[in-house]
Amino acid sequence: MARVLPDVAGFERELDYSVPAELAGAVRPGSVVRVPLQGRTVSGWVLAFPVQPPDGLVLRPLVKVMGWGPEPELVHLAAWAAWRWAGRRRSLLVTASPLVAVRQLPPGREQPVPYRQSVGQGAERDLVNEVRGPGRHLLRLPPVYDATALVLALAERGPVLVVAPTNARAGAGCAALRRRGAKVALLPGDWPLARAGADVVIGARSAVWGPCPGLGSIVVLDAHDEGLVQEQAPTWDAPSVAGERARRAGVPCLWVTPCPTLDLLSATDQQHVASRATERSGWAKLQVVDRRRSDPRTGLYSPELIRLLRNAERRVVCVLNRKGRALLLDCAACGEVARCEHCAGAVRLVGEELTCRRCGRSRPLVCASCGSDSLRSLRVGVTRAREQLEALAGRPVAEVAAVARAKGDELPGASVLVGTETVLYRESELRRGGGVGTVAFLDFDQELLAPRYRAAEEALALMARASRLVGGRSRDGRILVQTRVPGHPVIEAAALADPGRLSLAEEPVRRALRLPPYTALAVLSGAGAAELAGALENLRPGPGAGGRVEVSVLGDGRWAVRAPDQGALADALAAVDRPEERVRVEVGPVRF
Prior knowledge:
Strand order of the largest sheet: 8-9-7-10-11-6-12
CATH architecture of the largest domain: 3-Layer(aba) Sandwich
Structural class: alpha/beta
Largest sheet: 7 strands, parallel
Strand content: 15-25%
């Protein structure tokens, strides 16, 4: 008898089926099968085999074995992740399964001879040598680091599972590793090779659910990147899944990042930091343009920026995020950005008061720095910025639209490009076009003061990506930042190549506002959100309930649920019945 979870949306019940003798040899935990259900046949996953059949019960037989599926340990990991992020196992098992049926595996890695390759010495290998034994290890390397050398150093110890933030990064890493002679499986296309056994299994976010027999270690590149978080519910994130998978396998998990987030720092077992010389050389030189005393007639463009555009010998990339998500106010008298005196977040005009978008506190319509009541809005879009920059620079300026990347359009050949932050993700194309000498953030305050609790960490991540694009100090790269908050911890951290400064500044704010990682947080939305929020409010503390949770209204039909830790939050969400109406549960929202 085999226990099966049918691949049916919203169906979580495990069903038992008999296994015909002719299929028994192909059935194993994780196999993808076809089973009869309610007058039709559906796909499903074998959760356990063999299982003792109950007495007096006649079971229906399996119809067909489709082929290989997730490794048995991933089946159990999916159950944990469904509890952790208040979701269903089905979606997680779909992620862990091949795109098409795999009935036969290719030849795998030769055994027992492990992969060997000399990768020389460097900061990457030095930090890998510090990683001994299982656990979650955070490696703080500068933006310009050699991921290939790091992975090859780990591959000497056994098969490595590598998770990258984007498909482009995974593809480039696969090509580099193959050039060095490693047997690499690139997911999802090379799923059969990965299941058979490879030196390195690599892919984007979903690769954390990929097969890797004989797993020796797991590496998550740029572990701070939001691309590693699943947007659809259940909203799992690759670093957390990788850490739990490594713990169960008894192998090390390496979170590699130039700018660790507080979530990573609070969850890591051991932190490994590159030397100061290495870290400084991997961050780009930073030129800060203080706009507080700028002539209002210059608008968004400082004289320093205009000189740069007119005289630059290498390509300049200008970044301006304008998606209608943040409208800043500044003082017409002193030039300071209007900020909350309690949490330093950006404020907006609501009626006759200024209201903080982060903590919700209000104050009269006056500047906190000089007392003036003359405040003005700051806003200009990318398209208008291109026209203005072209006129001021006296040279062609091209706009890079986000939709162009999605369509696969080539980058314009102009020496000056302007676009949203998505232009920074086209690193390989920019390098093929001669590289980038300078990245200019036209209005960095939109990032520093965005109404999100992770705004500062996201801003530093943009700095790190820009540093990687221009090559850091080792290649004479430069970042120009126009800001009215030159003393912000993000600016200081990037200028000094010391991301730890931002963590020290953010920690007391997060604690005071009871934000992750110091409080477990979930956001409920949808037609059934109010009913689920009410059930959670009435939940009594007890075994399996995780203690009492706090529920608050966010507006727009959304509710916030807080608990002392992730386990208590997961237990609480599992202890209540879901309403009949649709509800989305976002555990650990990154855009809160």
